Structures are given as C-alpha cells and as structure tokens.
Amino acid sequence: MTRPFHAVTTVLYAGALATVAFDAFGQGLTPLLGFARLAPVPLATSVLNVVFGASPDGAAYLLHMLAGLVAYPLGWLLVARPVWRAVAPGLHWSVPAVAYGVGLWIFAVYVMAHLIAGNPPFLGFTGITWVALWGHILFALVAAAVIEARLPARARSAARGVTA
To answer: What whole-number distance in Å separates Cα of residue 73 and Cα of residue 57?
Structure first.
C-alpha cells in the first residue's frame, strides 16, 4: 500500500472509530447512566445558521461527521502530534492525546458554541459541559491510538528495522 493512501485510510479509520466512540458515549452511555446527552448536531445547526444564515436538512449532521472523520484526526496528525514530538517526545502518546482532547473540547464548547453560536461560555458549565469534556478526551484517545498504531514514528520504525 502506498504511503499517502495508507495515511488517508488511517485518518478515515481513526476518525470513524473515534466518532463512533464519541457518539456512543455522549448520546448513548451518558444518558443511560443519568448524565447529560451530547447534542453535536444541534450545535452544528446553530453554527451553520449564524455563519450562513441557514442550515439545510442534513448539513449539520454532515458537518459533525466531517469534523469527526477528517478534521479532528487531521488535527492530531498534522498539529498536535508534531508539537508533541518536538516538545516532549519521551511522553507516551496518550498524554498529549488527552491534552488534544481538552483542546477539542475548548474549541467545541467555547469557540463554536459560545463565540460563534452565541451560547453561554462553556455552555454555562452545566452537565453537558462535563460530558463534552470526557467525550472529546475519549475521541482524541481513540483517534490517536489508531494513528499511532498505523503510522508509527519513524524513529520507532527504524529501531525495529522497518523501512518506510
């Protein structure tokens, strides 16, 4: 398999698994346990309404899916992962993945929900705020785990005698 194709399929695979984990946690498990239910599609609808003045049927769902399948895993691969390797390469990948999840949470509940959609900052620090925090951390851990397993660092690959 060619390297670019492998990288693309890895991002999509990581995004698919992480999005399923995020949605299963935030829309299934947490309400089942008596906690708040995440509402990423209504948030995306609000954002689309503010930015474009309308949200056609299905557009918010597609925005949520594209963010989870492509944008957020690419954020790990192209931004968070290189920063981690430059700043603290000795850390296990799970530590910067948790930090990336917190960053995704800030982006979702402060930037998108508050600055763009006009909701209270961090959604008023209600139950959904904390479910969203753990959901974004879970997303980042799953996405990073897939990417780290399928696209190992060159140094680790070289140490094992694998050539890229």
So the answer is: 25
Residue 78 maps to a domain: yes
d(CA 42, CA 26): 14
Q: How open is the CA angle 124-126-132, to the nearest 5 degrees?
A: 100
| Amino acid sitting at position 156 | R
**Secondary structure (DSSP) of 75-94:** HIIIIIHHHHHHH-TTS-TH
- Helix pair 127-150, 3-24: axis angle to 10 deg: 150
Confidence of residue 161 (pLDDT cuts 50, 70, 90): very low
* Residue 35: Cβ-neighbour burial (10 angstroms; 0-12, 13-18, 19+): middle
Structural domain for 113, as ranges: 3-15+33-153
pLDDT category of residue 95 using cuts at 50, 70 and 90: very high
Number of domains in the chain: 1
The predicted-structure confidence for 115-126, as pLDDT tens digits, reads as follows 999 999 999 999
Task: Report the candidate in 126, 104, 113, 100 with the shortest Cα–Cα distance to residue 42.
Answer: 113
Cα–Cα dist 147/11, whole Å = 7
